[in-house]
């Protein structure tokens, strides 16, 4: 075997070895990138900084909850739409007693001829009332998928913690409902 043939054979083995290493590195990088989304969601959820995954979905009503009938809180309901739909509460406000389990309903109508995926993000006024507003069930806990021209009635089940400061007499619960980019399915 000549020197050039031996050299060519060595280069071929080296090239194959390098190719194998590059394939492994590319596969590891793809796997890492693929795992980043659930890992990011888990980290955000654990740190309490992910606004799309609401932790109060795990709130359980205490067995001994006392309804404070000596106080009334007005809960004003508001809706903002960022996308191809109509979104509104079915009532503008409701009066509740602290500790009382209450259900309100929001309505959304997809006005387009395509399926859309959307998410609702809540906000509260005054901001100081947020820790006392306990949602037991809410459409904001997960993304919603609406078919073409579909209408949905979506409930929010909540109670106001009796520890709410006495000076707070009104709480505004507002939702912004927006389309999640890339999640919509084309009409088939």
Could you explain how this protein is built, in words?
The protein has 188 residues and is an alpha+beta fold. The protein contains one helix and nine strands. The strands form two sheets. A five-stranded mixed sheet has the order 3-1-9-5-7, with no helix packed on it.
In short:
With 188 residues, the protein is of the alpha+beta class.
Topology at a glance:
Elements: H1 3-47, E1 73-82, E2 85-89, E3 93-96, E4 102-110, E5 116-125, E6 133-138, E7 144-146, E8 151-160, E9 170-179
Parallel strand pairs: 1-9
Antiparallel strand pairs: 1-3, 2-4, 4-8, 5-7, 5-9, 6-8
List keywords for this structure.
24% helix, Ctag/Cox11 (Pfam 04442), alpha+beta, 2 domains, five-stranded mixed sheet, 188 residues
What number of domains? Answer: 2
**CATH fold-type name of the largest domain:** Ctag/Cox11 (Pfam 04442)
Return the string of H and E elements. Answer: HEEEEEEEEE
For the largest beta-sheet, the strand count, sense and barrel status come to: 5 strands, mixed
Q: Evaluate the radius of gyration.
A: 27 Å
Overall pLDDT metric: 82
Structure class: alpha+beta
Strand order of the largest sheet: 3-1-9-5-7
CATH architecture of the largest domain: Sandwich
CATH superfamily of the largest domain: Ctag/Cox11
């Amino acid at each position: 075997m000549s020197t050039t043939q031996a050299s060519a054979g060595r280069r071929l083995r080296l090239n194959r070895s390098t190719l194998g290493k590059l394939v492994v590195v590319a596969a590891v990088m793809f796997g890492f990138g693929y795992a980043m989304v659930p890992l990011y969601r888990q980290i955000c959820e654990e740190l309490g900084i992910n606004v799309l995954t609401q932790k109060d979905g795990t709130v359980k009503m205490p067995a001994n909850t006392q309804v404070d009938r000596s106080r009334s809180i007005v809960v004003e309901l508001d809706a903002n739409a960022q996308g191809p739909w109509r979104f509104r509460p079915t009532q503008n406000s409701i009066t509740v007693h602290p500790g009382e389990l209450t259900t309100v309903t929001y309505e959304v109508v997809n006005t387009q001829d395509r399926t859309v995926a959307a998410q609702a993000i809540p906000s509260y006024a005054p901001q100081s009332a947020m820790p006392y507003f306990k949602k037991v069930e809410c459409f904001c806990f997960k993304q919603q998928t609406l078919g073409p021209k579909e209408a949905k009635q979506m409930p929010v089940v909540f109670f106001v913690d009796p520890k709410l400061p006495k000076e707070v007499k009104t709480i505004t619960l507002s939702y912004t409902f927006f389309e999640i980019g890339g999640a919509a399915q084309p009409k088939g």
